[in-house]
Design a protein that fits this description.
- The protein is an alpha/beta fold and about 200 residues long.
- It has one domain (about 1-185): Rossmann fold (3-Layer(aba) Sandwich), CATH 3.40.50.300.
- The chain contains 9 helices and 5 strands.
- Strands 2-3-1-4-5 form a 5-stranded parallel β-sheet, with helices on both faces.
- The chain is globular and about 50 Å long.
- It binds adenosine-5'-diphosphate and thymidine-5'-diphosphate (TYD).
- Adenosine-5'-diphosphate (ADP) binds near residues 7, 11, 12, 13 and 175.
- Adenosine-5'-diphosphate binds next to α1 and α9.
């Protein structure tokens, strides 16, 4: 099974992915986390561009869109292998991040058309002001006004694509329990094992 946790920067995705993996391991599942951008040379190039101080223009935003799409394709074999082996894959972001952060949407969908679609997508929805308290804001895309726009886009996609939406303004454990409640039925895990 391929599960994706989405949300703006600082929503708590990587924290929740790790907790979810620990819980799945405890319940006897083989679980593994994948992260986008990846650690590949393309992922490293993306992180370098994101950390550069100069503002990003329209052309560079498109270049990033292409790099994210290419980086994502590198994961395809890994996802397939995990599915064949019955591993639960927990993905910290997927192609929906590109739809939320890059534009125009029709082009982003086109260049990501070979990306694997997760079975379950959970959107950690958080107020950008709250999310900003949780990170340093030094990377591109971390400005509050931009994050407001990305949050609105996520909520729009969530409605169209039937994401599960979890209120991520709350404490770490409460959010995790909501996530477990969403995942449990698909894996046949008893609700008593959630907290
Ligand atoms: P993301 O991967 O979405 O950017 P992280 O999981 O890295 O978010 O969390 C960013 C920071 O916020 C980390 O220092 C983490 O410990 C903290 N954090 C995560 N979730 C919460 C929460 N629900 N409440 C308070 N702090 C949190
Ligand atoms: P990430 O390391 O997940 O940031 P965070 O942990 O703060 O949420 O991602 C780095 C940045 O890349 C983040 O600002 C979101 C952006 N991003 C895109 O713009 N498009 C994409 O397709 C992906 C995967 C990430």
């Amino acid at each position: 099974m391929y599960i994706c946790i989405e949300g703006i920067d600082g929503a708590g995705k990587s924290t929740q992915c790790k907790l979810l993996k620990t819980w799945l391991d405890k319940n006897g599942y083989k679980a593994s986390i994948i992260t986008e951008p990846t650690n590949s040379p393309i992922g490293k190039l993306i992180r370098k561009i994101l950390s550069e101080p100069a503002p990003i223009n329209d052309n560079q935003q498109k270049i990033l869109g292409l790099l994210f799409a290419a980086d994502r394709l590198l994961l395809k074999d890994k996802i397939q292998k995990a599915e064949d082996e019955g591993t639960v894959l927990i993905s910290d972001r997927c192609f929906y991040s590109s739809i939320a952060y890059q534009e125009p949407e029709d082009w982003i969908r086109e260049i990501n058309k070979f990306a694997k679609k997760p079975e379950i997508v959970i959107l950690l929805d958080i107020k950008p002001s709250k999310a900003k308290e949780r990170f340093d804001g030094l990377e591109k895309f971390e400005e509050e006004s931009f994050l407001k726009k990305v949050r609105r886009k996520y909520l729009k996609i969530a409605e169209k694509e039937d994401f599960f939406i979890v209120d991520a303004n709350r404490g770490i454990n409460i959010i995790q329990w909501d996530i477990r409640r969403i995942i449990a039925p698909s894996l046949g895990i008893c609700q008593d094992n959630i907290p």
